[in-house]
Write a structure and sequence with these properties.
single chain; 13 helices; Rossmann fold; alpha/beta; globular; 4-stranded parallel sheet
């Protein structure tokens, strides 16, 4: 893999992504400790500004299964840009660690870490991007459908970091992607432009609209995320009103292809962006999707740290 860091999907080539997917598939098939000596003696720092369940556990377990060590750095221990300049944190930790995974509020913090770090930086989530999530998602779609080319993925909800990364990753890999968001909650223009550029090269389509039924019509994959992300709690009442009609439910899903699959990056607010019925239906692959975070992250760690 040519990429030194994983900051955003747009930094990864098709070859980079395919290499991650191929290795993740092998690692999943080999079992938990098949490569238990691979990262022996390597240490990954886990910097968190936001709470986490899947990101924290999956990266820690990934390092353990590969023979390495993960060190959790809580928000109050680091305080990026407050207690200490980000460039100083990056240069100091580079002397101790073999890699850094950071989960931050501001994307600029991840970018600055990468600028000054001498070891690989992995974006575990920022306000702009969630690349490991999108990579795991499309790995899962390929696993379930056998291919990505020619599929249609419909994202219904907020034009947030997950939406941004899915837009770019889908277009990069030749998946048609349709995003339905309420007006005023669209994905960033820069992201849409990047996705359109990727789509032009790879022969896929990109649609951004405010009509969930239009987005889901003929879809192979239906994807959603929470309407109110961490840090947006004060907007909750406003968002609940704005997103009315954007729920993933049986009526909306009836517009998709018969063998559609449902995805959600979790945590889910059942009864808001998705019904309990859809979460528990035979079409839901939400927990397979969650598991694959581990396998894809193991592949990323091997490619970056070894």
């Amino acid at each position: 893999m040519k990429a030194k860091h994983i900051i955003s999907i747009k930094d990864l080539s098709v070859d980079d992504i395919e290499e991650i997917f191929d290795l993740a598939k092998k690692l999943k098939a080999e079992g938990k400790f098949a490569r238990a000596e691979s990262l022996k003696g390597k240490t990954l720092g886990l910097i968190f500004q936001k709470p986490s369940l899947r990101t924290k556990v999956s990266f820690a377990v990934a390092m353990a299964q590969l023979g390495g060590t993960a060190i959790y750095l809580a928000p109050e221990e680091v305080k990026l840009g407050e207690r200490e300049a980000i460039k100083d944190v990056a240069r100091t930790l580079s002397r101790y660690l073999d890699g850094i995974m950071a989960r931050t509020f501001k994307h600029e913090d991840i970018v600055e870490l990468a600028e000054y770090s001498q070891v690989p930086i992995i974006n575990g989530l920022s306000d702009f991007s969630h690349p490991c999530q999108a990579l795991s998602d499309l790995f899962t779609v390929k696993e379930k459908k056998g291919t990505l080319k020619g599929l249609k993925l419909a994202f219904v909800g907020d034009g947030n970091n997950v939406c941004n990364s899915l837009l770019m990753a889908s277009a990069r890999l030749g998946v048609d992607v349709a995003v339905a968001v309420p007006k005023g909650y669209e994905p960033e223009k820069e992201v849409v432009k990047t996705a359109l550029d990727f789509a032009a090269v790879n022969g896929s389509k990109v649609i951004v609209c405010s009509d969930p039924e239009k987005a889901v019509a003929g879809a192979d994959v239906i994807y959603t995320d929470v309407w109110t992300s961490m840090g947006q709690e004060k907007e909750r009442a406003k968002r609940l009103k704005a997103f009315k009609g954007f729920q993933i439910n049986s009526k909306l899903c009836s517009k998709a292809n018969r063998d559609y699959i449902i995805m959600h990056c979790l945590p889910a607010h059942r009864g808001e962006e998705i019904t309990d019925e859809c979460m528990e239906s035979k079409h839901s692959i939400v927990f397979d999707q969650a598991e694959n975070r581990l396998h894809v992250e193991k592949a990323i760690l091997l490619l970056l740290l070894k």
